[in-house]
Design brief:
This protein has 250 residues and is α/β, with parallel strands linked by helices. Helices cover 30% and strands 28% of the residues. The structure holds nicotinamide-adenine-dinucleotide. Nicotinamide-adenine-dinucleotide binds next to helix 1 and helix 6.
Length: 250
């Protein structure tokens, strides 16, 4: 049976852990989360330190903590195994992205980039050579952006690189679109705090030679940074990465 580990045992991590324990596709070796008081989650040990040898014999490490944790562990983990990051804003750092890609290639491992809160990253990636203009607009409640605005407020408008620096926990969608499409400098971001909504909404517009896509995704916000859809999406991505048999959308 495949063996996996999680960096971060919050909302997304726990959803994936329960899912994999229910479907029996993999054994979870440990959860690294120094901020949890629990000694275990559903019988999986919670550890507060990582030694590199803990990555040996794993088939996959899943990051669901924050962008700093991606920066800290991606190259170390890729020496031994595959890596799936959810904190995509980490890749605004070109040097980190390049070194992660180089480590994956050198050691023959994969970096699996999950679609997370949105849909269609695979299709955007496939059409990227023809894309000329990409915009991503996100509307969230002030609370989910860690703010207390009482009226509709445009917080940021400009290149995605700066958006991901200003709101690293809230604009993973922007980072994912930039990575799949035309990059962090050419992708245009807009971030809005709207006290009248209880959803996370992302409006994505992609234009290119013979291409015009609009993607609108809205998902109920249950508090925290993650909406209703992402845990479902994360479990689907994990299933695809772990493999098996039967139908699979590619
Ligand atoms: N790719 C996407 O579309 C997408 C969508 C939603 C959330 N996210 C990102 O996924 C990540 C996890 O989201 P969540 O909703 O599970 O968050 P969460 O706040 O529920 O859980 C995060 C967990 O990480 C732990 N943590 C914090 N610092 C850590 C560290 N240095 N080392 C190890 N663990 C640490 C926390 O204790 C917490 O248990 C966040 O970075 C979030 O921004 C990505």
């Amino acid at each position: 049976m495949k063996k996996i580990a999680f960096l971060g045992g919050g909302k997304i991590g726990r959803s994936m852990m329960s899912h994999v324990q229910e479907n029996g596709k993999a054994q979870v070796a440990f959860v690294y989360d120094p901020f949890l008081k629990d000694a275990d989650i559903n019988g999986v040990p919670v550890v507060s330190e990582i030694r590199d040898e803990m990555f040996e014999e794993l088939d996959l490490v899943v990051e669901c903590a924050n962008a700093d944790v991606v920066a800290q562990f991606i190259a170390r983990a890729l020496k031994y195994t595959n890596f799936m990051p959810f904190s995509m804003t980490a890749f605004r750092d070109d040097a980190l992205r390049d070194s992660a890609k180089a480590a994956a290639e050198q050691h023959g491992h994969m970096i699996y980039l999950p679609h997370g809160a949105i849909l269609g990253l695979d299709g955007i990636f496939d059409g990227r050579s023809e894309l000329t203009e990409v915009t991503v607009e996100t509307i969230k409640s002030p609370a989910s952006l860690g703010r207390a605005d009482t009226e509709y407020t445009v917080l940021y408008e400009g290149p995605t690189r700066k958006a991901t620096e200003l709101y690293p926990r809230n604009v993973n969608v922007h980072a994912a679109i930039a990575l799949a499409g035309i990059g962090f400098d050419k992708t245009h971001s807009k971030i809005i705090a709207d006290p009248s909504v209880n959803t996370n909404t992302h409006l994505i517009h992609l234009v290119g030679k013979g291409i015009d896509f609009t993607i609108r995704v809205s998902s109920f916000s249950e508090g925290g940074v993650t909406g209703k859809y992402t845990p479902l999406s994360a479990c689907g991505s994990l299933d695809r990465v772990l493999g098996g048999s039967g139908f699979q959308f590619v």
